[in-house]
Amino acid sequence: MASLELLGFGSTGWGALLIAAALMTLAVTATALAIGAVLGAIVAAAKLSGNLILVTLGNVYTTVFRGVPELLIIYLIYFGGSSAVTAIGKAMGYEGFLGLPSFIAGALAVGIISGSYQAEVFRGAFLAISKGELEAASAIGMHRGMRLRRIIMPQVFRLAIPGLGNVWQLSLKDSALISVTGLAELMRTSQVAAGSTRQYFLFFIAGGCLYLILTSLSDRVFNGAERRANRSMPASAMGQA
After folding, report:
1. What range does the domain containing 197 cover?
2. Partner of 216 at 20 to 30 A CA spacing, among 83, 147, 162, 233?
3. Has residue 236 been placed in a domain?
4. Residue 149, SS3?
5. Which letter does DSSP use for residue 49 in this model?
6. CA-CA distance, 146 to 140, in Å (whole number)?
7. Going by C-beta distance under 8 Å and a sequence separation of 6 or more, which residues neighbour residue 229?
């Protein structure tokens, strides 16, 4: 009973801190997914452009950041970013070390990793669009911007949702590695609670259960988004110009 009381939400319990840490995990993962979506869209466009230089750069990006261990990328972004910020500070007359905030470093690192996977998700979704629809849109006089807005983007989004759900789950688990930067996300808080109370089994199980809750809820959200997108797609695919 004493062990379970440690998970309470009063002033003597760790439960509230674990919940706050879970919310921090969601925040850093959502930020990373948004960063990755921007990078992934740019890289996917580069790989689909047909330009040899852009295709090569896109391939290098996806190969490097899918092949290098995630923890190494987090270290490079956190310590390399801190060194860069410190150098900029010295150039502006500030003396001393300037560390890159853990949240920014973690979200950026996981976002860069996420972007390498999202690029392939977006590229695959674009290639799955029927060429006949694009040709029909051109035949009725749709300009490039309208084709992008009315046909390409809605279908890419619909086709990419399952893949994006997988990338979200991957990023959610990668966020545990950000604990090395000192950010009080779920893994870090579980470690601190376990070390402070010597209740390692209790707090690591509690942290694992919270991760399972987050992933289960995420599955429901992405499955719901996929169903909704599939229902609305027939009405929005071609539309009226």
Report:
1. 19-229
2. 233
3. no
4. helix
5. S
6. 12
7. 157, 158, 161
User: Domain of 211: which CATH number?
Assistant: 1.10.3720.10
CA distance 34 to 107: 9
User: Residue 212 and residue 85: Cα distance in Å, rounded?
Assistant: 36
Question: pLDDT of 37-78, one tens digit each?
Answer: 999 999 999 999 889 999 999 999 999 999 999 999 999 998
Q: In the prediction, which pLDDT does 119 show?
A: 95
SS3 annotation, 125-142: HHHHCCHHHHHHHHHCCC
Q: What's the number of domains the chain is made of?
A: 1
Rounded to 5 degrees, φ, ψ at 10 are -85, -170
Ranges of the chain with pLDDT below 70: 1-13, 141, 143, 145, 232-241
Tokens representing residue 83 in the block: 């060194």
**What was the pLDDT predicted at 139?**
73
Q: What is the pLDDT of residue 59?
A: 95
In a domain, 194, yes or no: yes
Q: What share of the chain is helix, strand, coil (3-state, %, to 5)?
A: 85, 0, 15
Query: What is the C-alpha to C-alpha distance for residues 108 and 136, in angstroms, rounded to an integer?
Result: 40
Q: Which tokens hold the place of 107?
A: 């979200």
Identify whether 10 is part of a domain: no
């929005």: which residue's tokens?
Answer: 236
Give tens-digit pLDDT for 190-199: 888 888 888 8
Question: Is residue 11 in some structural domain?
Answer: no
